[in-house]
Design a protein that fits this description.
The protein contains 6 helices and 6 strands, in the order H-E-E-E-H-E-H-E-H-E-H-H. The chain is α/β, with parallel strands linked by helices.
């Protein structure tokens, strides 16, 4: 059995989960950031060691919803937030910056992460998922005192072309610009290429 086989087995054992339903003890709030208010899930006591979970560009704070009770039971305060422009942080974005900027960039996401960390107890353990791993590495390089540790989860080595290894579209992806890449992602979700259950598909749609 490979690591991927084991991960698939564990994922299938979860069954079809309602990703909008929060586990007991998890609450919603917002945290102020330069790009605007960011929607957040919080669990655990305010005075505990902090764990901050940051989703990738195509995810949301709900990616971590099953981890929150586990980490809280281990004694941590756990937070997961939506990036600017993402799900319940859709109103946050570059037009809310001072001064406003015309488009999203790494600086926006790094500054938002720093603001999230500064809003609570530090240093904090941070997990960056996919694109957020790149953001978190830059934040760590600039503000190491905010970090107790950094964990990278399926983070690419650099920004840019991340589709090369994808079985169905990898060979065509070098010609794809950012707009085409986003369109491919949406197409994959709408056509359920990952073959997820109905509840998960309804949530991401």
């Amino acid at each position: 059995m490979t690591i991927i086989d084991d991960a698939r087995r564990r994922d299938e054992a979860l069954g079809d989960i309602d990703w909008r339903a929060l586990p007991e003890g998890v609450r919603r709030d917002t945290v102020a950031a330069p790009s605007g208010p960011l929607a957040r899930l919080v669990a655990g006591p305010d005075d505990a060691q902090r764990v901050v979970l940051v989703p990738g560009a195509t995810g949301s704070k709900e990616d971590f919803v099953l981890m929150l009770p586990i980490l809280t039971a281990a004694g941590y305060r756990v937070e997961a937030y939506d990036l600017a422009g993402q799900y319940e942080s859709a109103a946050a974005g570059p037009e809310r910056l001072t001064p406003p900027r015309p488009r999203y960039d790494h600086r926006l996401f790094v500054d938002d992460l720093v603001a999230v960390l500064e809003a609570g107890r530090t240093p904090a353990h941070v997990l960056g998922y996919s694109f957020a791993g790149l953001v978190a590495q830059q934040a760590l390089a600039e503000r190491p005192g905010l970090f107790a540790s950094l964990t990278l989860l399926t983070t690419p080595p650099a920004s840019g072309q991340v589709f090369r290894g994808v079985k169905r579209i990898g060979r065509l992806s070098d010609a794809a610009g950012p707009r085409t890449a986003a369109t491919l992602m949406l197409w994959g979700i709408r056509n359920n290429l990952n073959r997820v259950g109905p509840q998960r598909l309804a949530f991401v749609k």
